[in-house]
Specification:
The complex is a heterodimer of chains A (199) and B (471).
Chain A lengths: L5 E9 L6 H4 L19 H4 L16 E4 L11 H9 L3 E4 L4 H10 L2 E4 L2 H13 L4 E5 L4 E4 L2 E4 L4 H9 L3 H6 L2 H9 L14
Parallel strand pairs in A: 1-2, 2-3, 3-4
Antiparallel strand pairs in A: 1-5, 5-6, 6-7
Chain B lengths: L8 H8 L1 E3 L7 E4 L2 E4 L5 H10 L9 E4 L16 H17 L2 E3 L9 H7 L8 E4 L13 E4 L2 H10 L1 E4 L3 E8 L8 H12 L7 E6 L1 H4 L3 H9 L8 E3 L4 H7 L8 H12 L11 E6 L6 E3 L7 E3 L13 H14 L14 E4 L1 H4 L2 H11 L9 E4 L4 H9 L2 H8 L2 E2 L20 E4 L14 E4 L2 H10 L10
Parallel strand pairs in B: 3-4, 3-6, 4-5, 6-7, 9-10, 9-12, 10-11, 15-16, 15-18, 16-17, 18-19
Antiparallel strand pairs in B: 1-2, 2-8, 13-14
Helix pairs in contact in B: 2-5, 6-8, 13-15, 13-16
Classes of the chains: A alpha/beta (199), B alpha/beta (471).
């Protein structure tokens, strides 16, 4: 994973709450077996409407999405994160994220920045009144800036550290392989296995 | 989650699976007892393992099935959609390469991943269960801590059999009283979600408790826990009891002999202590509940069937009002229309929410001797091949086909329309599944979430109905 410290890009106002992962990428687009190429499916149904924000210039080149509360609800599909990143987004700002989406974003290096809804509203107005306004998201200082607007955002410290360092979760866990071995040695023997145990 | 006071069920399961406590901001490392795998969210995880040269740590705690993409007709033929076929073939190759048990299309044990785990007796109380699918919460009905994960986490579990996680908060959902006839687990959970909202459970494990929950069968409990994610919760749990043990006894993977006794003794400890405290509590009176349906485009936008389409003007909260306006526009509904007057084109009975044998029995009882209304298509999709087989042994398939419904093979089917079972643009369904999101069942399709009883009655009348509305 590439380290993330600071990103500046065009902000895209998405005035919708409960943007579920079926909206971010509908199920029919989930059939690829790679992690790339999902940008076509991003907001597929909404993008068929010419008035949709991503069909407008200069929002089309956006990389910081500013959405309503409860972003990423529903399906656990990590394809939602891949689709956003394949399209070019590096940050999503919302006042509330669904847990699984936030987790998936953190694994892939997409910053899910949680702001107060009042700040989201201010950003929406700014981005709508002055399309193409660039938003800077600084993970080190946990701040969002655009023109005169500045606000803090929250993100859990561990995810922030991993994103800043660009660290692979699995490698971090495998440092504790001894602990896993020890745990397995004390699991009750009656716990089920899916296959007949080989000896 | 360690404290000096009593512990909740969720805290007990968490503590028992903690491989290592995190220091400072670091998460705990949690051991995973069972990892369920399907074709959609796993290919990139297996690719990651190959790239890093990592094996699957515990193939013997992993099981795979084909469910999301599979067609529900002509399953003896190759899958027509080449992209779906590639995804299924990829799963088969990966399972072979990494030594994972797979139940492919047509196999006697194939079915929706959340139906086959419990059916095989692999889902047991006090376990940690994960799957790259948000409806993994289903398995919480057994007192397991079960939750959906993304593909990066699938890879993590395959490689390490653990997940780094921060403890969840706990919320008690107390449902007391006696359900009226015709009111089901589906109505309970739709009412819970309408009450706490699609974000109300965020960060929480929900524990469903109270006399109404205790009186439910295992299958009904699974329906409730299944939809915990629709309230935003990480997981939903129900403490195991005699109903749980009776369901598990003699299942293929249930402990046998002395192991069974040891297991039951351990399972009896899996209850929230009297002096435990939940981070939040919600109360619901089961006796006041009536059949519940959704009118909007998220599972929290629901009302009793006897009510009418709400008027967004009367919603005080601006965000919710805007969401309701968008929902009504998408659903093509007018405020004030009685929900019972909404006509549907399609009825879908199935899914990991309501695709088990009791669901099929309940719907068949309503359809017996009746006909599906003219112009309405009804799809009956069993949750697994075993469910299908059991239904046929009881003659339920004949009840469905004689009523004019289609009797299909097992899979996720129209719950998410990854296979050919989809709504056409503008079509409206009454669906026993779990999500009424825009386009969920097919681009432009409109979904009303209902119980199996409401689904069957709706099929007969052609408009949203409960069995009480039938002659």
């Amino acid at each position: 994973m590439e380290p993330f410290t600071k990103h500046t890009g065009v902000g895209v106002p998405l005035r919708r709450s409960n943007v579920d992962t079926d909206q971010i990428i509908p199920a029919v687009y989930l059939k690829r077996v790679s992690r790339t190429g999902f940008e076509d499916g991003l907001f597929a149904a909404w993008r068929s409407d010419e008035h949709f924000v991503l069909n407008q210039q200069p929002y089309r080149q956006g990389s910081v999405l500013v959405a309503g509360p409860d972003f990423g609800t529903g399906s656990s599909r990590e394809h939602a994160v891949w689709a956003l990143m394949n399209y070019g987004f590096r940050v999503v700002i919302s006042s509330r994220f669904a847990d699984i989406f936030r987790g998936n974003a953190g694994k892939q290096g997409l910053v899910a920045a949680q702001c107060e809804q009042a700040d989201v509203e201010l950003l929406w107005k700014l981005l709508e009144n002055e399309p193409g306004t660039e938003v800077t998201v600084d993970l080190e200082t946990k701040t969002v800036r655009a023109k005169d607007f500045t606000a803090g955002f929250s993100i859990d410290d561990y995810t922030r550290w991993r994103l800043l360092e660009g660290l692979d979760d699995i490698a971090l866990t495998l440092r504790h392989a001894d602990d896993i071995d020890a745990f397995e040695a004390r699991r009750p023997s009656w716990k089920p296995v899916t296959t007949p145990q080989t000896t | 989650m360690t404290t000096t006071r009593g512990r909740t069920l969720a805290e007990k399961v968490w503590d028992e699976h903690t491989v290592r406590r995190g220091e400072g901001a670091e998460p705990d490392l949690l051991y995973i007892d069972l990892h369920l795998v399907h074709e959609v969210t796993s290919p990139q995880a297996f690719d990651g393992l190959r790239l890093a040269g990592r094996p699957v740590r515990r193939p013997d705690l992993t099981i795979a099935t084909e469910d999301h993409n599979v067609p529900t007709v002509d399953i003896e033929l190759p899958i027509a959609d080449p992209v779906s076929r590639t995804q299924v073939d990829t799963l088969r190759r990966n399972c072979k390469e990494f030594g994972i048990r797979l139940h492919p299309m047509g196999d006697a044990e194939q079915g929706i991943v959340h139906v086959i785990g419990p059916q095989l007796g692999l889902t047991q109380p006090g376990m940690t269960v994960v799957c790259g699918d948000s409806h993994t919460s289903t398995h919480g009905a057994f007192g397991a801590m079960a939750f959906g994960i993304g593909t990066s986490e699938v890879e993590h579990v395959l490689a390490t059999q653990t997940l780094p996680l921060r403890p969840f908060k706990t919320m008690a959902i107390n449902v007391d009283g006696r359900l009226r006839p015709g009111v089901t687990a589906k109505d309970i959970i739709l009412a819970v979600i309408a009450k706490i909202g699609t974000g109300g459970g965020q960060g929480y494990v929900l524990e469903y408790r109270g006399s109404a929950i205790e009186s439910l069968s295992m299958e009904a409990r699974m329906t409730i826990c299944n939809m915990s994610i629709e309230a935003g919760a990480r997981a939903g749990m129900i403490a195991p009891d005699e109903t749980t043990f009776a369901y598990l006894k003699d299942r293929p993977h249930a402990p046998q002999g002395a192991d069974w006794d040891a297991a039951v003794a351990a399972w009896r400890e899996l209850r929230t202590d009297a002096d435990a405290e939940f981070d939040a509590e919600v109360h619901l009176d089961a006796g006041t509940l009536t059949p519940f349906v959704t009118w909007g485009t998220n599972p929290g936008q629901g009302l009793p069937l006897a009510e009418s389409v709400p008027d967004p003007e009367r919603i005080a909260d601006e965000t919710e009002r805007f969401a309701a306006e968008k929902a009504l526009s998408y659903m093509d509904l007018e405020p004030g229309t009685p929900l019972r007057e909404i006509a549907v084109d399609t009825v879908f009975l199935g899914s990991c929410t309501n695709g088990r044998i009791e669901d099929l029995r309940a719907a068949a009882e309503v359809l017996r001797g009746r006909r599906v209304a003219d112009g309405v298509r009804m799809l009956v999709v069993p949750g697994s091949m075993r469910v299908r087989q059991a239904a046929e042994a009881e003659g339920l398939h004949e009840v469905f086909t004689e009523a004019g419904a289609e009797w299909r093979q097992a899979g996720c089917s129209m719950c998410l329309g990854m296979n050919p079972d989809q709504l056409k643009p503008g079509e409206r369904s009454a669906s026993t599944s779990n999500r009424n999101f825009e386009g969920r069942q097919g681009k432009g399709g409109r979904t009303h979430l209902v119980s199996p009883l409401v689904a069957a009655a709706t099929a007969v009348r052609g408009t949203l109905s409960s069995p009480e509305d039938l002659d």
